[in-house]
Amino acid sequence: MTYSILKFSIKNKLLIFILVTAIAVFGIFAALNISVGAVPDITNNQVQIITTSRNLGTQDVERFLTSTVELEIGNLPGVEEIRSVSKFGLSVVTVVFSDDMDTYLPRQLIQEKLNAIKEAIPAGFGEPFMGPISTGLGEIYQYTLDVKPDFKDLYSLEELRTIQDWMVKRQLSGIPGVVEINTWGGKLKQYEVALNPQKLSTLDVTAFEVLNAVEENNSIVGGGYIEKDNESYFIRGEGLVNGVEEISNIVVSHRNHLPIYVKDVAEVKMGFANRFGAITGNGEGEKVMGQIMMLKGADSKMVIENVKSRIAEVQKSLPKGIFINPIVERSELIGRTSFTIFENLILGCLIVVFVVIFLLGNFRSGLIVSSVIPLSLLFALSLMYIFGIDANLMSLGAIDFGIIIDGAVIIVEYISYKITQSFRLENQYSKHEMNQSEKDRITLEGAYKMMNSAVFGQLIIIIVFIPILSLVGVEGKMFRPMALAFCFALIGAIILCFTYVPVMSSLFIKPETTAKETISSKMMKFLDSIYNQSIHLAMKLKYVVLSLTLLMFFVAMFIFSKLGGEFVPTLDEGDFVIQPALKTGTSLSETIHTITKMEQLIMEFPEVEKVVSRIGAAEVPTDPMSMEESDVIIKLRPKKEWKNTQSKDELADLIKERLALLPGVEIEFTQPIEMRFNELLTGTRADIAIKVFGENLEVLNDLGLKIKEAVENVEGASDVILEKTVGLPQINIVYNRDKIAQYGMNINEINRLVQLAYSGMDAGKIYEGEKQFDIVLRYDTDVRSNIEQIKELQVLLPGGSKMPLKEFADIKFTDGPAKISRDDAKRRVVVSVNVRNRDLESVVVDLQKNIKEKVNIPAGYQIKYGGQFENLNEAKARLWIVVPIALFLIFLMLYFAFKSWKIASLIYTAIPLATIGGIIFLQLRGMPFSISAGVGFIALFGIAVLNGIVMIEHIREKMEKDTSSSFQEIVIQAARERLRPVLLTAISAALGFLPMAISTSAGAEVQKPLATVVIGGLVSATLLTLIVLPILVVLFLNNQHVKTGKYTAILVLIMISMNVNAQKSYHLSDLIEISKSQAPHLQILNQEILKWEAQANNSRRFDKTEFYIARDGYNLDEQGNNVNQFGISQNFKLPGYQRDYKQWLLNRKSMAETELSLARLSTEKQLR
Description:
Elements: H1 2-11, H2 13-33, E1 45-52, H3 58-73, E2 79-87, E3 90-97, H4 104-120, E4 129-130, E5 139-147, H5 157-172, E6 178-185, E7 189-195, H6 197-202, H7 207-216, E8 219-228, E9 231-239, H8 244-248, E10 251-255, E11 258-261, H9 262-265, E12 266-272, E13 277-281, E14 286-294, H10 300-317, E15 322-329, H11 330-360, H12 363-387, H13 393-397, H14 401-404, H15 406-426, H16 436-469, H17 473-498, H18 500-508, H19 519-540, H20 542-561, E16 565-566, E17 575-578, H21 588-602, E18 608-616, E19 630-636, H22 648-659, E20 669-670, H23 672-682, E21 688-693, H24 697-711, E22 717-722, E23 726-735, H25 737-742, H26 747-759, E24 761-768, E25 771-779, H27 781-784, E26 794-796, E27 802-804, E28 809-817, E29 819-823, E30 826-835, H28 840-854, E31 862-867, H29 868-898, H30 901-908, H31 910-924, E32 929-930, H32 931-961, H33 967-977, H34 979-998, H35 1004-1036, H36 1051-1058, H37 1068-1078, H38 1080-1097, E33 1106-1116, E34 1122-1129, H39 1135-1167
Parallel strand pairs: 7-25, 16-32
Antiparallel strand pairs: 1-3, 1-4, 2-3, 2-29, 5-14, 5-15, 6-14, 7-12, 8-9, 10-11, 13-14, 13-18, 17-19, 17-20, 18-19, 21-30, 21-31, 22-30, 23-28, 24-25, 26-27, 29-30, 33-34
Helix pairs in contact: 1-16, 2-12, 3-4, 5-10, 11-12, 11-34, 12-15, 12-17, 12-18, 15-16, 15-18, 16-17, 16-18, 16-29, 16-32, 19-35, 20-31, 20-35, 24-28, 29-30, 29-32, 30-32, 30-35, 31-32, 31-35, 32-33, 32-34, 32-35, 33-35, 34-35, 38-39
């Protein structure tokens, strides 16, 4: 099969060029159209169910909304986790489904349950709906509607909000890939009927009479049509109110035959809805923000480009003085990380090309090998495009061209050597020009001989990556794209080795007429001399070397136990998010005031470009924050413009020190994507979430306070914050049921009055063209702002008289729950901890120790650790399965290759030798163990055994050929002869990862541990393999050497030895091999074998199909002419004939092979 492919490729060079060109063209197309992102989207498969009921307290939201939703969806198929947050007026339930379910099936299952949920929720308590189909990377574009300084006084917050809702938002709808345009901040315009309770009482009118009057005088109706004079006249009853004046003039009632208008009992004016969130920016005060969310699975780069294009169009239609100011634009991060990928790929490519050309010592050979790099990359991009894999830091950032071209290096180097060798032998006595057919033959034989070695090494790398494809969860989403991209590139390289590389070699490699000493050869001579001394010394001190190696391994294992651990290195997104938390129950206006002061302090830093704060909840509350909570987004300038510091951690410390001037504010630092991922994956925004589960909220809060005190002083623990679950100020109205019953009333009527007076009730809508605004009735602001007025709220009795609310109820001030969080229907409170300047695992170990010593956990309560630590533990558990599988597969491949457990075990020693360097390099660079480093070790294990394979294979060849030298000398000589291939493989692979290891560009943090492990491991594996492996071979394979024999002088040897004019020196075994390869009778037998093999491969083919046309001599047409016959002729053999015939051909081939073997032995015996 291999021979046939190679022969076909060399014979059909033009076809191969066409196919390779087609791959390159499609690869370029894929590169231009592939989905590009910064990092893989690691969000789990989740659906949010949101229910808003702005008048319900926290405990009522949990009882009537959250519990109802959780109960209904708990038994849906594929549900893995249910998390919920209950706050004043808001319930958000997050349902996590299995990743093997697609995006839309879970939503369909939930949609079927929503009807049952709506029926179970009491009337008027809100209707649940699903959140947008988006992910942690979905917030791709956020902007504010800003006003130019000259127009500041022309636009209010109500007008800006109206422009956002009815102009900007509508024009941005319909962009492919955009699933939601959320509005945050500003004031939602309403027509407010502000009731005056005293006027109501004086005129003997109730609030509900006003409500009914407004509702009944604001309607429209269709009356069908009538026919008149052959025409149809359609009837419309237009009763919609058109503004404040018309509402004011609505008649509520009549007293003493006089109408009472709405304006007599209320002030009708422009107002705004009760607010639960706001936006501020740059310390300038409130703003209006739009948040564009991307559809899950969409191409972020393409969507952002479409959004920016549409925004440019929208900008032209905005009123004078208003402009759209982008705050968060994901394309900037994508651009920075794409630059990092491009930079690493280009540098890695150039380094590998230089190393290959330098060590090969042949420019043409180097260029052929180097050309495999872009072609393999384009092949990988093609498959990534076909299978829908994004191009990002993980998928493309870890491709090592040194590994990818390893097979091509082996093949090209050997072909170049064989072409030069053949040319020199044939030109010893007469000039001889090597023709193309001769080069084709040599290329075919050389490529065929080396193909197994070349492909086997690359197959090992592919097999090593297979266990990585089995990773699930967050680590699976992060590293599977990397493994697939790497495998795609390797598959492309293998295909090119079978086709493109032999063709290019046969066409462009020229024999070296003279043995010129190049810089490469001089360096190899120098390295060989050093290696020769080292290997001889090591052979004298075998057990000392092995003892030192074993000691190094145990030292490395000890260092590994002290490295600590983290899940994945934090990606530097280039921006900050500060999460300040004020006292529970802080009013929205006070929060706005405090956050504005905070922004002013932050803007004093020259490193800060702009600051925008999101306070409370948005219109679609996918991020359920309370009014005292906020996200302060700090957009930083490029680092070259920084003045105070060059480190983000130092800048964070400086900002934190400055913000300490604000009393009563707890601050937590994070980054936009990191924060969103943490929240969606684990329900918390911090690196570590200490979750305390139990029933009583007060007990949970007390335990949380004790845990916070216990862990605040742990080294590396930063931003230690207790989730605010209690202390929300409430006015509780506790009804006296006996009195209510005595007056013949019911609680529902009183509750409706309380709701209308303070929260307000909708009485219809007013339409301004396409815009529509609510008409809301509520008591006047002066009344509502006076808490004592609640007690005096007049309640209408059945007899028509009125009594204050305090006569029916006990009204008192209490503290209630501010937030109730639940995981799988169990209440919990969280102490969140961020980690800085220390590894995650070590911090958690100290946290656990302190909590165990200082906090007593009562019965019925338990602690769990979540956040990134939870992800780390899950990933480590999977690595304990994946790594042994990878190691077993490597050993299995080695055994099948060499058919010897002993040899496979010797090559396998490269893995612990590689581990030493990987661990030491992590320690030297101050990096903890991470999943990124773990994946690096898996890749390293596959790469490390390649040098062992090359070494052992050549030692076995030498053992068969050299029967005179001692076994130790054979091993040393073989090791020296393999020095250049071993160094070439190791150096090109290690240097291919070098740009990733030392890069300081955006996103490089994620790649550094992986690259560091591979480089360090290759350094130790190469150095120790060159020394330790030969020692092990001498110790354990010494009984397998061939017996020595007597040398015989031969004519060919004399002829070659006489030609000493600057020719290459040859070993006797090499000369024997050359003589055998040139022997005519052996070449004839070899051709005979190829002939029988080709006939056997073609034996099952059908004979040639024949198409014919003839005249039928027996049949005539209507005119008496012979009928023309058209037909197809095909000969078929009997079923058993082809099988027997093929077996006969294979037997002939076997006989020819036996004859060739005997002839080779006879020839070698004569030569010796």
